[in-house]
Amino acid sequence: MAEINEQPLMEFGGLRSFLQEAHETVEAIRAGLVDGFVMRGADGDENIFILEGANHPYRLFVEQMHDGAVTLSPDGTVLYANRRFADLVKRPVEDIIGASFEKFLRDHEPLKALTATHTGAVDTELTAASGATVPVYISHSTLQSGDKTWICLVIMDATQQKRQQAMIQESERLATIGRTAAVLTHEIANPLSGMLTAVQLMQCQVAERGDESLFTEELSILEEEIGRLSTLLTNFRSLSQPTQLNPAPTEVAGLIEETVKLISAESAQAGVEIAQHLSGDISPVPLDRQRIKQVFLNLFKNAIEAMRDGGKLTIAVRSEADGVVIEIADTGPGIPDSLDVFDFFTTTKPEGTGLGLAVVKQIVSAHGGAITYTSESDKGTTFRLSFPLVRSISAS
Amino acid sequence: MRSTGKDGTTKPPNDKWLLRLYIAGQTPKSLTALGNLKKLCEEHLDGHYQIEVVDLVKNPKLAQQHQIVAIPTLVRDLPAPLKKIIGDLSNTEKVLVGLDLQQRR
């Protein structure tokens, strides 16, 4: 019986298995089932190579992300920047790559922090090509791959957040002023009321004595001034407190007609003609009737007072897709461009308190509405109010 | 020894399988292979398996142990004999045959 030598058989089996694996590897590559390879370098160490297309989804992700992404060399040279970063600094990507990151920072100190620590975040500002500064938060981390080191930055535009922070600070400041004003107006209103009663008493006594020359004019001035101060206090109180509304479906045209009746004598005296264009098919709008009446009254009175030598007050109401629009136009001298009449203590009238339109804006805003105006010198001013049909009412 | 069903697939094994999937970070083929492997194990190994994912980007030297050349590669460490399947495991029948979970048709 012949002796079987097992050694060649084993070698043959090993070779077959090796060839089979090599064949399957080639087949897998041909079929596109792999996207990475292990290569052995001259030093005998394994290196991983990934096919370029394999990283494509991640490249797209970084390229299109909402935040800026930048890779730096340890000395701060930009190796990569995505489109968002280019947008932030308003420069083409080709101008950014290869430049020192310092070039894009308003203050060079943060770069030291970025390159000195392994990970962290800095709150700083970028300088755009236009010279404008962009507030940003930069978070950074150091990446090590083999003998190479990169500093990866994610840059978030903080413009909106900074603006909101400033608004919060401003509203906190205004709230403090408001609380102080509320206390002050209360403290002033009481003695003012006493002064008015005293003046009216003195006027009665003067009338009883029948001596018209005795301080009549002075008393009249006192009464007027106290009245003006009272109006100022009422407006101030209104501005310093949250606007509490009691909204109910309201026919705007009806409310306008009602308000116009209140100013008809005043307008006739000033020689102001009132024209109303009130469309009949306007859906009721959820409004606080008394508050909006105050808005219309303020605007109508302002318009009449702006037309001391006569003119025309035109009131138009119309429906729009999502609400009702009211336009109140006068033919007065117009409002100078330099004024924002909604600002506190801004007025074009010698006797104005400068708070009436601030109150108007507060009430309209609390209804979820908007008020704007256009004005032309010597031709007149048109205020445009809009109220949504459905809206959330806020206390402001 | 596993018994073979009418459809050519074998019944789930009683002994625990150890499967090593060599990947390179989160490349599409690596992620596809991992997804395919999990699905396949759930369907054919009935909980008798353990998957070890070896990320060669994190530690390239680990490629030496099983002489990995292309990524992804699946290695069946247990039960013996050792088996290797190269690619993203999208050809289920080929993978099942390669792992001895189905007879070659």
Portion of residues in beta strands of chain B equals 15-25%
Principal-axis shape of chain B equals globular
Biggest sheet features of chain B: 4 strands, mixed
Low-confidence segments of chain B, given as residue ranges, are 1-6
DSSP strand count of chain B? 5
Structural class of chain B: alpha+beta
Write up this protein.
Chain A is an alpha+beta fold and 396 residues long. Chain A is 45% helix and 24% strand. Chain A contains ten helices and 14 strands. Chain A has a five-stranded antiparallel β-sheet with strand order 4-3-7-6-5. A five-stranded mixed β-sheet of chain A has the order 9-11-12-14-13, with helices on one face. Chain A has a two-stranded antiparallel sheet with strand order 1-2. Chain B is of the alpha+beta class. Helices cover 23% and strands 25% of the residues of chain B. Chain B contains two helices and five strands. A four-stranded mixed β-sheet of chain B has the order 2-1-4-5, with helices on one face. The N terminus of chain B is likely disordered. Classes of the chains: A alpha+beta (396), B alpha+beta (105). At the A-B interface, helix 1, strand 1 and strand 2 of A face helix 1, strand 3 and strand 5 of B.
Fold topology:
The complex is a heterodimer of chains A (396) and B (105).
Chain A: H1 6-30, E1 36-40, E2 46-50, H2 56-64, E3 68-72, E4 78-81, H3 83-89, H4 93-96, H5 109-116, E5 119-127, E6 133-145, E7 148-157, H6 159-209, H7 216-240, E8 248-250, H8 252-270, E9 272-278, E10 285-287, H9 289-306, E11 311-320, E12 323-329, H10 356-366, E13 370-376, E14 380-388
Parallel strand pairs in A: 9-11
Antiparallel strand pairs in A: 1-2, 3-4, 3-7, 5-6, 6-7, 8-10, 11-12, 12-14, 13-14
Helix pairs in contact in A: 6-7, 7-10, 8-9, 9-10
Chain B: E1 17-23, H1 28-44, E2 49-55, E3 70-71, E4 73-78, E5 83-86, H2 92-98
Parallel strand pairs in B: 1-2
Antiparallel strand pairs in B: 1-4, 4-5
